Fold these 3 entries.
Entry 1:
Amino acid sequence: MKVLVATDKPFAKVAVDGIRNEIEAAGYELALLEKYGEKAKLLEAVKDADAIIIRSDVIDAEVLDAAKQLKIVVRAGAGYDNVDLEAATAHNVCVMNTPGQNSNAVAELAFGLMVMAVRNMYNGTSGSELKGKKLGIHAYGNVGRNVARIAKGFGMDIYAYDAFCPKDVIEADGVKAVASAEELYSTCNIVSLHIPATAETKNSINHALVGRMPKGGLLVNTARKEVINEAELIQLMEERADLKYMTDIMPAANEEFASKFPGRYFSTPKKMGAQTAEANINAGIAAAKQIVGFLKDGCEKFRVNKK
Ligand code: NAD
């Protein structure tokens, strides 16, 4: 059995070593395709792969067609919108993610962006503190929970909205559960986004929603760029000079945001939330273990596509 690690943006070496240990201990072979650039190289490499570990790499119908022996794809990370789930099901390929493995890394980055914004991008002027501010966590999943844990240390007043997580689960963490996204934005000084990119959430962070935020509102996005209605957020930030937007996922309209809102807008140069040695190792090794569990015992925990 051949397990291919196909990562245009490679794992740290320690993570690759850990993945190799798991795969070889199970008696399988590991193949590595890093920084491949062109899709043609990926199409060639997947031909004889039984399993693939990816990061943000795109697995579409063309890749699945080329991978005749493929049984499983594991996205080392949380978001799996880079994999065509329906095509995978049609090809009888199991798709998994590795939930929770990079959550702390992303949550820490969200606070890095928050502190930078409230300290006026470190421009030498007097800023404000997170302590006592109302923080809204938009989606209380693995990252959202880590944000809540860290926010307690900052002494923030914490609110959360999640469309699927029960209220009592949120409140058991000492976090106030609100009934709607509208209520969250109306209530909170800072909103940190942790929703996945789905048909329902795409473009949902719009003028009407963010426009509810109190004066001086700060929106922090470590989720996905697709959830933001960029044109409407630009319009809103033009209307309201008090709003700030900090993101880990560079918008398509990055240059427009940067030129129109200096001091109120910042984007990391590329998605960096999960870019820590710890998250790399955790997610990569979890992916390798899930592949071994699937190939040896048929374990489908963390499967995200239909059978
Ligand atoms: P998760 O699956 O653990 O949690 C997602 C939460 O969103 C769930 O609790 C779910 O109930 C909730 N949700 C789904 N649809 C919703 C909706 N319409 N309204 C409100 N809540 C909704 O995922 P996670 O690990 O917490 O990650 C969250 C997102 O962060 C991922 O989907 C991914 O897009 C993004 N992410 C980014 C980075 C990065 O590098 N910046 C890294 C990891 C994850």
Note: Residues 77-79, 99, 102-103, 106, 139-144, 162-165, 194-198, 200-201, 222-224, 248, 271, 273-274 surround nicotinamide-adenine-dinucleotide (CB under 6 Å).
Entry 2:
Amino acid sequence: IDELIQDGVEGKRIFVRADLNVPLAGTTITDDGRIRAVAPTIAKLAAAGAKVIVASHLGRPKGAPDPQFSLAPAAARLGEILGKQVSFATDTVGDSAKATVAALANGEVTLLENLRFNAGETSKDDAERGAFADALASLADLYVGDGFGAVHRKHASVFDLPARLPHAAGDLIATEVGVLKKLTEDVARPYVVVLGGAKVSDKLGVIDNLLEKADRILIGGGMSYTFLKAKGHEVGISLLQEDQIPVCLEYLARAEKRGVEFVLPVDVLVSADFPDLKTKAAANPELVASDAIPADKEGLDIGPKTRELYASKLADAGTVFWNGPMGVFEHPDYANGTKAVAQALLDCDGFTVVGGGDSAAAVRILGFDENAFGHISTGGGASLEYLEGKTLPGLAALED
Ligand code: 3PG
């Protein structure tokens, strides 16, 4: 954006596609990391005299207004972070957006309502997306793409809109891509990858790619039970993607062939009941070996031996990429696995990257100092797809 600013942006209406998809409890933002991450770009453009129109999605509404996914709380928080009033349009391309944008003075900032309240944003139909992108384009003179968390989505505001306006990448995208690119090049070794989160199917692409690059892959969270099952262990009522077992077996075999250490939990905390995340009432988990999960229980966190094992595998790391929590970290009885991995990253001297909406939020919610990590990405799916080597629509659209 510095080039854009040098060319002069005073009085220009700049559409900034941000990713303000933050976790909410009702209307309270529980982690504002994504808002803070994009705020410098917005501040820089406003300081240069632009009229800044910020837009984002929040959650997955069904292409129509749905109050539980309103971005109004994000407008208030963005205003606090910027230290200036951020006006809010209650629609995306309707009367409210047009009036709010028309009322902007140089250096002022507005936020549009959730882009996904319009079916054209996520449509698979090029014409429908294009029509929505046309309507968005009519609001602005220039486009800045800075919603790194959404660059893997071929959506109207991410992919189609930059083709309609002179465009530039924002500072957040530039930083994110700079860091992730490093992980695809010559990395300091050992290169240790920690993967968690619920679904193994979300991580297969990245495992496929990292099996060629990493020295160690440590698995935790819901996805570990499909690997444990693939190794012949019973997993009770734990999260399981039975149809993914063949590919898990293939990856385990490939890891062995390539000499990549592929490490699974050796013990887990289990319970017959999923914990109450609202009351956080004591869950009294039981500790069992990972090959002895009772038939009526589900695994909800890695156990103490696994915590120690994973810390030891991270201690000498030259580079770490971590995506996905080790357990149900939102409940204190199941947060220790995720905490232990975060602490192990802090304790190692290597370059550490935390990727992912959930693991990034976990680090902050669990009270770690985010600045102590090498880099905390704002992109979950986006950082994984980048490391998979895929072409990301939102980056491709900015490349020219
Ligand atoms: C994310 O949280 O990963 C991004 O904001 C993208 O959201 P989506 O998965 O709903 O497209």
Note: Residues 19, 21, 60, 149-150, 153, 357, 380-381 surround 3-phosphoglyceric acid (CB under 6 Å).
Entry 3:
Amino acid sequence: MQKDIATPVRTKEIMEKYGFSFKKSLGQNFLIDPNVLRNITENAGLTKETGVIEIGPGIGALTEHLARTAKKVVAYEIDQRLLPILADTLSPYENVKVIHEDVLKADINQMIDEEFADVKDIMVVANLPYYVTTPIILKLLEKNLPIRGIVVMLQKEVGDRIAAKPGTKEYGSLSIAIQYYTTAETVMIVPKSVFIPQPNVDSAVIRMLLRESPAVSVKNERFFFNIAKMSFAQRRKTLMNNLTSGLPDGKKRKSEIADALDAAGIEPSRRGETLSMGEFGTLSDALFPIFG
Ligand code: SAM
């Protein structure tokens, strides 16, 4: 087996061979620690039956670990300069396909139909470009893809918000948006030193496994997410204050909001960060007939 791409020596060799320079604007921080990569693949529960979607293969550090463990890997890379490098570094692996596309513009459902028709277990595994972490994860979840889950490296601070529980300062509308679809947990904290160039912040590996059905059943999903967002708009304000500022004509319709809170059994003086996912569901269902 060839030496891992994800070592400082081999990464530097590859970069020099191709005269490659990092683009900060594309979130290019490459992993140079094979142990971290092994940890990511293990946490994704990959087998030779698994199809993997990778976002941002870079020079292939994670991709080769995925290719060794999974049935097939399809990787989206936005930076054209990396294509010849990937063709070289990944040449030992026949089960990898690189697509040159911005993942945010890609039709992933169609790609799955074409590339993973015979695959029952599909996982998204990536060391994400940090400038677009949240839009990428939300796109993956909102498109209803037939995936088992997502295991990704991201900024630790974003990971903390994704996996946060009610009553903590990290808990917010992002926690609700993601935990609605998945069980989310941090599986590893990763120091800056395992990347080149080193990012400014620490990182974490987060595992999000799709729930069989959403965490709460609500009358209207869009409205539910809007109510959650509104409730966290000004964290120091009470729920009542945030709702009167956020709902249409809220200030004039205070008594209707108070009635809905009462019907949902939620004290108007509470802060958004204390509400569980279930309580947001009950509240949004009580408000939906009035404001939806
Ligand atoms: N997987 C490699 C590793 O772990 O060393 C590289 C990870 S690096 C953090 C992020 C990668 O995502 C870069 O290769 C970058 O060019 C790519 N990228 C950035 N924005 C992207 C987008 N919108 N769609 C697809 N790839 C993107």
Note: The mean pLDDT is 96.
